[in-house]
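User: Can you predict the 3D structure for this chain?
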Amino acid sequence: MRVYRWDLDKTYLDTDFQSVRGVVRAATEAAHRKRALPGAATLLRALSHGSETKVTVLSGSPRQMKRVLSEKLALDGVRFNEMVLKDNVGNVRRGRFRAIRGQFGYKLPALLRARSKTPASATEVLFGDDVEADALVYSVYADAVMGRIGAAQVSRIMERAGAYPDEIDTTLDVLALVPRAEAVERIFIRQERGVSTARLAVLGTRVVPVRSWWQAALILESEGHLSSDAVQEVLEDVYESSGFDAWTIGALAQDVVRRGWVSADAFDALRGPNDAVAAVREAVALVGGAGIDAPREVSHPIDYISVLSGSGWGRHGQPE
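Assistant: Here is the predicted structure, written as structure tokens:
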């Protein structure tokens, strides 16, 4: 079994949290008015309709939005098995204002709880963005399930990231129920804010920054998760709905080749809009096998406390 775990805001949905108007709109607009990010619906739809797959949604959106968010995913043709949303109203009532922004105290125990109900042999691919702490939370989750870090380290990491004591206790209780396994194959982080790939490289090659969901689709195809037809559909979605011209699509292809995630010959059979395909092939040919920065795995355990304490990372674990 393969499990795909998705965040929503800025990962799947084009949500504006930078203004009061945007926040109000996100909370009140109807499902048919919510916009999926270019390629997101097509990619998740393809993943959700695969055989022996499971899709879960884990978002910081408030629980009161569950109906409208479920309706939006249904309108997009996405099948999902579980949706977990944040109890922000409860946090406000209890005066837990730190928890409204905090991700470790919410997402990490939720991920572990979901894992405890998942077959030990199942592998996972996680999807998030660089607006919040997805990259760090997902990476800690992967290492905890793998057994690379233990309960004491998880406790220190969560404390440093601002989690409440009871959130830490809950996390450790659930972690004790999870069988150790090398479960997480990939963590895709959409670069909404343009956080540099070098910043995220400290988390190793498991974390893959992408500028477009088409790049993620290309990598997923190379790793056996998607068909070439699905990749073509994602490309067409991105090209038609993002406003990108053909040369921008070519630049996306060149970027993923330069970073060593996809080989140049992967585009030989590429299908899609003619001008975009032509631009992709020309851009990839310019790489010429030179200057490729092959991903390098981190050979030592990640020092998450140092990451959280260092420059370039916010106090709640978001990259800056």
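The mean pLDDT is 90. The first strand starts at residue 2 and ends at 6.
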